[in-house]
Amino acid sequence: MTISKANSKPIVPKIIAAPPEFKESKFMDKNLQISPRKLRLLVDTIKKVPVSKVLPCLKFTNTKAGRILTKALETAIATAKNNYHLLPDTLSFVSFMVNEGPKTKRMDKSHGSRFARGIITRRHSRLTIILKGQVKN
């Protein structure tokens, strides 16, 4: 015979849900044909906005920096989604850096001694975007 207690409840193990896992995805473009200053003007306004709301705003920005950043962000989001299996709705910016890239210089004899001895400098940028998001289960 088994003895049962009146107030005893069956022991059920508690299943503790694991906290969501977060990963980072990195996108780099080393040679953008726009000066870093022009790109930084737009990047500084975008950094604070959530990733999901940035693309619609950028598509209506009528600048070369807007077109470049739209393509870069679309690529970064696609990389995070396909390669790192991150949910696009949970993505947020960890860092958004614009650095100086290689410069191309050429002589322009028509300017002579003006404009830094007639040397025309064409500036390029390096863009680094690091996104953080929740991993799909």
UniProtKB/TrEMBL annotation:
GO terms for cellular component: cytosolic large ribosomal subunit. It comes from the Bacteria. Gene3D superfamilies: Ribosomal protein L22/L17 (3.90.470.10). GO terms for biological process: translation. Keywords: Ribonucleoprotein, Ribosomal protein, RNA-binding, rRNA-binding. GO terms for molecular function: rRNA binding; structural constituent of ribosome. InterPro entries: Ribosomal_uL22, Ribosomal_uL22_bac/org-type, Ribosomal_uL22_sf. Pfam families: Ribosomal_L22. This protein binds specifically to 23S rRNA; its binding is stimulated by other ribosomal proteins, e.g., L4, L17, and L20. It is important during the early stages of 50S assembly. It makes multiple contacts with different domains of the 23S rRNA in the assembled 50S subunit and ribosome. Belongs to the universal ribosomal protein uL22 family. Part of the 50S ribosomal subunit. This is 50S ribosomal protein L22. It comes from Candidatus Shapirobacteria bacterium CG06_land_8_20_14_3_00_40_12.
